[in-house]
Amino acid sequence: MAGPWTFALCGLLAATLVRATLSPAAVLSLSPEVIEGKLTQKLKDHDAVDILWRLPLLSTMREKPAGGNPILGSLVTFLMKYIIWLKVTSANILQLQIQPSADGQELVVKVPLDMAAGFNMPLVKSIVEMHMETEAQAIIRVETSERGGTLVLRNCSNSQGSLRLSLLRRFSFLVNSLADKVMSFLLPTLPTLVKSQLCPVIEAAFEDMREDLLHLVRVPVSLSSDHLQFDLLSPAIKHDVIQLHLQAKLSDSQGKVTKWFNESAVSLTMPTLEGEPFSLTIRQDVVNAAVAALVPPEELMVLLDYVLPELALRLKSSIKVINEKAADQLGPTQIVKIVTQETPELLLDQGRAKVAQLIVLEVFATSEVRRPFFTLGIEASSEAQFYTKGDQLVLNLNEISANRIHLMNSGIGLFDPELLKDITAEMLTSALLPNENGSLPSHPTGNDLSHLQHPSPTPL
């Protein structure tokens, strides 16, 4: 799977302008699926299930019998003398749940635990096993400081009302009675163990996840010889989504910053493809800078008769309509010179993204002549699509439309440039377009975002 930039940027063709007050350069929005998938993986990395297997049930019950009740405590102390061992025999962490808080400003993380434990006593010939279900719960919130805001995990504990204990198999009346007593003593023990043993692991997993997210936004996106780099301004939580507000800068191949993007009131929303848990809102000036870096101004000389012979014949036929003598002067070394002026600009038109370019086109009869037959000024546009190739941001231009053509000068007499509109568009599409798309980068730069993919909801 390609990274989230792929899905966000491919949505450019359906982009719409959004007006806001002092919007950041970009906002990366991460759905609950992203947080769930990343946190699940980090819990695996921290061996959270092994922590459950090693829960010290027996020693904790002996240290704090019956939750401090002196009468029950004496009974627990008496029974503990006759329990040979009490251990967790199986443990799983089920699919995590990420839910918005009541005010929509925090996220509630629920970590369901499914375990079994067994104990043995001299009076009981077989191991008595119990099924234990409980849930750890924590809150993700944004805390602000002088340095800005940061995502933190707080209030990790056992979720109230989530603890359920039951015997996996019934025995005699005496054994069942003893087992019920042991389970009643475990009720206050498990929440204590969840908080003291598992919560530190959940907090450490969250910190690792947070660092991964920060690394994600800081990895430079390669744009030909330049790089577009994002830095975190501040995080925010809106309902069930974590938003990372980003600032952006453009730097050259030596790492020197060539452009900073300050706050603006106009942004460009790029929706995700259906089913993908990412969305990217990026300001139009940032996108325009990326387009300018990917498609810089250039000058292109084409020996039309050798490279595009069919177009050479059609061009000759088109010029013959204007000036038959001039058409006869076109030789096998005729040259079409194409010069793109300034940098292209991204435009939005009825939900479609286009790149507008100013182009100067000149036709020379042969490679020896210095003066062109004519010079055309062309206002052209192309449909634009962003995607990733490997780990690199790529812009692809589809077709080139010659929207307006102006006759700048002519050595074959004045004529209506509209007569050359179709052949001009074909020359630009055939000669300029492959050159612009072909010059785009194709080597990965290590900006691997595929690890944000949401894994299957299997137990740890």
TrEMBL record:
Protein's UniProt keywords contain Signal: yes
One GO term describing the cellular component: extracellular space
Superkingdom as given in the UniProt entry: Eukaryota
InterPro entries per the UniProt record, alphabetical: Bactericidal_perm-incr_a/b_dom, Bpifb1, Lipid-bd_serum_glycop_N
Keyword Cytoplasm: no
Signal peptide: 1-20
Record-annotated Lipid-binding serum glycoprotein N-terminal domain positions: 35-255
A Pfam short name: LBP_BPI_CETP
Molecular-function GO terms, alphabetical: lipid binding
Region Disordered: start-end pairs: 434-460
Assigned keywords, A-Z: Signal
Biased composition annotated in UniProt, kind: Polar residues: 436-460
Protein name (database record): Lipid-binding serum glycoprotein N-terminal domain-containing protein
